[in-house]
Amino acid sequence: MAENISLLAVFPDLGPAADAIDQLRALGIPDDHMNVISGIPVTEAMLGRPNQWTNVPRLAAGGAVLGFLGGMFLTFVTPNSYPIPIQVGPQAIIPGAPTVVVLFELTMLGMLLSTFLGVFLDSYFPNYRPMEYVKEVSDGKIAVFFICPEDSKEKMTKAMTALGAEKVEVAEVEQL
Description:
The chain is an alpha+beta fold and about 180 residues long. The chain folds into two domains: about 5-50 and about 130-170, Alpha-Beta Plaits; about 55-80 and about 90-120. The chain has five helices and four strands; from the N terminus they run E-H-E-H-H-H-E-H-E. Helix 3 (about 55-80) packs antiparallel against helix 4 (about 95-120). The protein is rod-shaped.
């Protein structure tokens, strides 16, 4: 079995980088062996890559349900926990309008907190594993990092250069 090598291709713009990803796919490199490094936010759809799977929407829905249940507890259980000896006027023990406000606010608070926690955990923050860093990305360029068999290095280099890569080199770990 051939040894794998990590290559890094630097492109001046997003268009050639998207074409390079398509070319890499055609050359047999799977999507999980490619990584796009960019200084600007780039969605998967812009590069023709499959959408990344995330748990954040499920966590947000779960937080909303927990917030709603907390609001139900505050608005329905708490007033009935304390005996009120006298009914003052036509006011109900559980009023309608304030109940809606409390339910809404606690539902949104639960969703907000769980969404924050989900994004925090989903982004692997803090991250202690080594990450790829390319100095040219800070200047607005797009880098495509991919793993390929060592015997196809020359073929990959020629393909990336033909698509407009400014440089294609073996990726090395650098200290920041």
